[in-house]
């Protein structure tokens, strides 16, 4: 670039790095890594040459260059992991109840995988499925296929049960939300009692982190539980909005909302990301206006129910618009 017709196009040019993609691809295959990992290594190697490192000068210089390369690679990997762990969407759509309709006949439609695709095209920034131990709606196959097809963020809701933890470690969704689960319940009834099972949750969170997943804990807006979630190592808390959604009158609803707000502020001060969900619909979501600490809403039943009348695309678009208005 310092030769030819425009040699002075950039007087500060240090040089250029040329990487043979064919060679990088071959070396990646030989080393059992991805082509982009090898490419990244070669790019760092080239840039280090440009700033004066040269492994050909001496053995000690070669070691210095190698250790600098490793240091930079490790930093990039850590940054990327942290970035992807910490990103959470505004509206994540739970498609469990598409599977509920399918399981009513035990056939293969409607398919939650197709529903997830439609929801994403309509603006959902995340897809949630709850793989229950009793497999009443979402099946293992759904999770496996969604892992391949979801383009936004896949959030696996699950009980901290060994069988399901192993499934999560195998599939590795972007995010795992741990919820309490009882066989007889119609849907998740309350938040986790994190304080009571803190040690076990800590272990589970550690395992899931090792698998590269961010972990959210579904809790009531109770300061004690929120602090326990932080201590257990959670990245995110999902505040339970079910009691608010079921409030019998306006006064009670506002009281419960105030509690959620205080919980969100506390969680945020503790350095947790905050999401909220359960029982939210096209009307009761509006009161969340201005609760900036809440970064994500996790909504399922009301969207799928509305989809029966207006279609899933429109039902999701309407909710996306409502959620956007909250900020
Ligand atoms: N968040 C959690 C933790 C849940 O268990 C559920 C229900 O599966 C939801 C959010 C979504 O609730 P709903 O279907 O009432 O919108």
What are the defining features of this structure?
327 residues, binds pyridoxine-5'-phosphate, 2 domains, Collagenase (Catalytic Domain), eight-stranded parallel beta barrel, alpha/beta, TIM Barrel, 8 strands
Secondary-structure blueprint:
Blueprint: H1 21-31, H2 35-50, H3 59-86, E1 91-94, H4 96-105, H5 112-121, E2 126-130, H6 140-149, E3 154-158, H7 162-171, E4 175-178, H8 198-210, E5 214-219, H9 223-232, E6 236-240, H10 242-245, H11 250-269, E7 273-277, E8 294-299, H12 301-310, H13 312-325
Parallel strand pairs: 1-2, 1-8, 2-3, 3-4, 4-5, 5-6, 6-7, 7-8
The structure holds pyridoxine-5'-phosphate (PXP).
Residues 94, 96, 130, 157, 177, 179, 187-188, 218, 238, 277-280, 298-302 line the site of pyridoxine-5'-phosphate.
Q: What is the second-level CATH architecture of the largest domain?
A: Alpha-Beta Barrel
Kindly provide the name of the CATH class of the largest domain: Alpha Beta
Largest sheet: 8 strands, parallel, barrel
Mean pLDDT: 93
Considering DSSP H and I runs of 4 or more, what fraction of the residues is helical? Answer: 40-55%
Oligomer: single chain
CATH superfamily of the largest domain: Aldolase class I
SSE class: alpha/beta
């Amino acid at each position: 670039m310092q030769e030819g017709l425009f040699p002075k196009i950039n007087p500060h040019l240090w040089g250029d790095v040329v990487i043979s993609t064919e060679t990088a691809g071959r070396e990646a295959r030989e080393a059992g890594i991805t082509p982009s990992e090898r490419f990244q290594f070669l790019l760092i190697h080239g840039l280090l040459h440009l700033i004066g490192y040269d492994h050909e000068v001496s053995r000690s210089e070669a070691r210095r260059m190698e250790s600098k390369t490793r240091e930079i690679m490790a930093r990039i990997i850590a940054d990327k992991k942290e970035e992807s762990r910490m990103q959470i969407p505004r509206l994540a759509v739970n498609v469990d109840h598409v599977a509920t309709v399918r399981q009513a006949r035990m056939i293969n439609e409607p398919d939650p995988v197709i529903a997830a695709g439609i929801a994403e095209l309509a603006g959902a920034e995340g897809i949630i499925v709850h793989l229950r131990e009793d497999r009443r709606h979402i099946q293992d196959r759904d999770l496996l296929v969604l892992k391949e097809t979801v383009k936004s963020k896949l959030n696996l809701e699950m009980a901290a049960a060994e069988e399901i933890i192993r499934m999560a470690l195998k599939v590795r969704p972007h995010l795992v939300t741990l919820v309490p689960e009882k066989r007889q319940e119609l849907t998740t009834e309350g938040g986790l009692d994190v304080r009571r099972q803190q040690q076990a949750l800590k272990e589970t969170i550690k395992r899931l982190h090792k698998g590269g997943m961010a972990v959210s804990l579904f809790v009531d807006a109770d300061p004690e539980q929120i602090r326990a979630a932080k201590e257990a190592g959670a990245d995110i808390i999902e505040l339970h909005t079910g009691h608010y959604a079921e409030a019998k009158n306006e006064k009670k609803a506002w009281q419960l909302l105030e509690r959620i707000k205080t919980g969100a502020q506390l969680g945020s001060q503790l350095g947790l990301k905050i999401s909220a969900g359960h029982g939210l619909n096209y009307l009761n979501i509006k009161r969340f206006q201005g609760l900036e600490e809440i970064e994500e809403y996790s909504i399922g039943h009301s969207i799928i129910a509305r989809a029966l009348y207006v279609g899933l695309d429109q039902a999701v678009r309407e909710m996306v618009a409502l959620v956007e208005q909250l900020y």
